Amino acid sequence: MIPDWMVGATHPFDSVLVANRGEIAVRVLRAASEAGLRGVAVYSDPDEGALHVEVADEAVHLPGETLGETYLNSEAIIQAAKDSGAQAIHPGYGFLSERADFARMVSAAGLVWIGPPAESIETMGDKISARRRMIDSGVPVIPGEELAISEDADHLGTLAAAAARVGYPLLIKASAGGGGKGMRAVHEPRMLRTEYEAAAREASAAFGDGTVYVERLLTGARHVEIQVLCDSYGNAIHLNERDCSLQRRHQKVLEEAPSPAVTPLIRAAMGETAVQAAQSVDYEGVGTVEFLLSSRGEFFFLEMNTRLQVEHPITELTTGIDLVQKQFEVAAGMKLTIQQDEVGLFGHAIEARIYAEDASKGFLPAIGKLAMWRPPSTPGVRFDSGFREGDEVTVDFDPMLAKLIVHAPSRKAALRRLDTALSDFVALGVTTNVGFLRQVAAEPAFTNGEVTTDYLDSTSLSTFSEPKPENAILVAIAAAASRFGLDRTAGSASVTDFDDHTGHTGDPFRTLKRSFP
Q: Where are the alpha helices (DSSP H) in 138-191?
């Protein structure tokens, strides 16, 4: 049955298959349930008992051992939608979300594609074509020289000449890239060949396309992105900005909204430019236009992500707009019901990406069983995850375990809430980056709102230590308490009167949280 809110839609649907896994699949499936839609999950063998399978109304198994046979198998996913009776497909992010050919296949199969048109994905997915379109549309781009260089021939001479014209430092970037893959900074000519070959190899492995190009590297800049929302009738608005400047090797660590560096005038100008960029490719749905913001207030187009972003919750919390619900509405052929002057900005939100990795060992990915998994549950805290206590963390997928998002009336209050929430979070059995997150969130450069994109990569990260030996007792007792059903609300004397003879008394869970940030 079509939900009441979809009455009058030109492309109504009553069920949606989520072509993804983990926390984003859980997020979209729960949004589908709230919208009155039937949610269908897909899963591979390692995900048979995963949370996204549990929350779905129906789940379809994808046979195969590799990603290419399962979550990246377009034909299998479309067949799963047909077999389950799903009428629409939401790609989440990653996997097939920015594959124009997949979007075309979904539409050709008579299903509703919950995303932008394939042509928009295609234009913005290729950084060279995106750059050209932005120049033609009057959108400011990063100074430099556009030059496509393919790995299938020896273009070192051409590359060297282009690099000399662009000037050092420069960036070699994958044309089809994203997430920092296929991107190398070159600070002097002698490193040009090595970094070019590395970028081309990585781009080829990650995207099946080794084409790269060069542009000037802007140092001391901030990474600021604008959330846009467009319908199929030519209406488009922006939903303010997010600051993603705190990065490690081009991977975002902490994101916040609004940006501490963006004034109302810059916000208006950047937002207008982002809408202009989206409309230049006839965009529909939710998308993100990313910019580099200089210390002088100048901003330059970086790229457009034609999908939902990992950090979308901070925009939702500061605007009160559910982005996934808006994706459903636009895909159903409905007009935007929000005008630009109706978009608010309420308080401050920060998102921390929690990974299974060991910061003290060069951020080496970690595996294991989540023997204890106690997310914070206080007001102003949102926790998006695809994991539960007892789940196994393996090498099969990306090591991100969860996103912890806080919202407060001010940035200062949000920073305090973030530290408290990270402190309250307990994860045992797998090494996480929570301690690292607490440390970088407390760095003066971040608390003062002065972080630029090169901050972490130019800062020593060798200050992390192993847990103190005395805390091993805390781990053992807390794990045992969890195993035998004794939690901090049970009122058991053996838990609440805990004393480990090291000066720690009271609730072991509370002590444990403070000892293992």
A: 156-166
